[in-house]
Design goal:
Elements: H1 5-26, E1 33-35, E2 41-43, H2 44-60, E3 64-68, E4 72-74, E5 78-89, H3 91-95, E6 102-109, E7 112-120, E8 125-130, E9 135-137, E10 140-141, E11 154-157, H4 168-181, E12 184-186, H5 191-199, E13 205-209, H6 213-225, E14 229-231, H7 239-242, E15 244-248, H8 250-276
Parallel strand pairs: 3-5, 11-12, 11-13
Antiparallel strand pairs: 1-2, 3-4, 5-6, 6-7, 7-8, 8-9, 9-10, 13-15, 14-15
The structure holds D-MYO-inositol-1-phosphate (IPD) and calcium ion.
The site of D-MYO-inositol-1-phosphate has 14 residues, from strand 5 and helix 3.
């Protein structure tokens, strides 16, 4: 691929932050971890990686805004451009020494995602996409899988953890319904990499509710540039604001949306009947 200046900046920052994460992964048992809430650990590694990304991206593009999972929103003088960064997506995997985690950097211009990079330093997989330039894994061009039948499809998802137990019932009904139709389902533990796997054709579809802007910002560009479709869980383009996401190729994306709608209707029907009694 021909690296644009923007992608170069993102790659350099991600590789430096990645070296830091990789060192910290090796010493995971010595890391001090602070507890942000039940089942939501945030490690020092996370904060260090965000600091590196903030430093490098701000130095290369002074004035751009920066939204990071750890530090929140930092306004820039350039109101058109914003970096949307997750320094460590897959924190639970990381803390358990499972090498399925990533740095995710998205660039938004005037409200549109125009570039995305997702990097797993544990296996050196570097996913990149820029609007109109295609999606890449290292030097290989990416394309979503061609499978059209749900029965052949491998679907990934996100399971709400203990501290989001209010999402359990809905998730369970959706999962049960997807399991009745799809070939098989996975929970891999990093939303950013789930989207990369769909872009790379490894998985056919992915859905999750209750996720954040930085979990999906870069992935949105990757999916679109790999020829896939991405929306919120209702099929609208509001995923960044309402925190739900559903993606896949044209066929699987549509079928997955149908299943989510059916699961929801099935869950509401007994509730509505009970209310009438
Ligand atoms: C989480 C991961 C996980 C997803 C959660 C995210 P974190 O991000 O992407 O796969 O299910 O919704 O919050 O906390 O590891 O950065
Ligand atoms: Ca995340």
């Amino acid at each position: 691929m021909l690296y644009s200046a923007t992608i170069n900046v993102m790659v350099k920052a991600a590789r430096r932050a990645g070296r830091s994460l990789k060192r910290d992964l090796g010493e995971i048992e010595h890391l001090q971890v602070s507890l942000k809430g039940p089942a939501n650990f945030v490690s020092l590694a996370d904060k260090r990686a965000e600091e590196i990304l903030l430093q490098d991206l701000s130095k290369a593009r002074p004035g751009y805004g920066f939204i990071g999972e750890e530090g929140g929103m930092r306004e820039g003088t350039d109101k058109s451009h914003t970096w949307i960064v997750d320094p460590l997506d897959g924190t639970t995997n990381f803390l358990h020494g499972i090498p399925q985690f990533a740095i995710s950097i998205g660039l938004q211009r005037e409200g549109t995602m125009i570039a995305g990079l997702i990097y797993n330093p544990a296996n050196e997989e570097l996913y990149m996409a820029e609007r109109g330039q295609g999606a890449w894994l290292n030097n290989t061009r990416l394309r979503v899988a061609a499978r059209r039948e749900l029965a052949d499809a491998l679907i990934t998802c996100g399971i709400p953890p203990l501290n989001r137990a209010d999402g359990h019932a809905r998730f369970q009904s959706e999962l049960a319904h997807v399991m009745r139709h799809a070939g098989n389902v996975r929970r891999l533990g990093s939303a950013a990499l789930d989207m990369c796997f769909v872009a790379a054709g490894r998985c056919d579809g992915y859905w999750e509710r209750g996720i954040q802007t930085w979990d999906m910002a870069a992935g949105i560009v990757l999916i679109r540039e790999a020829g896939g479709f991405v929306s919120d869980a209702e099929g609208r383009s509001d995923m960044m604001s309402n925190g739900t996401v559903c993606c896949g190729n044209e066929y699987i994306h549509r079928r997955l949306l149908d299943l989510l709608r059916e699961a929801d209707a099935g869950r509401r029907a007994p509730l509505a009947r009970a209310a009438q009694l």
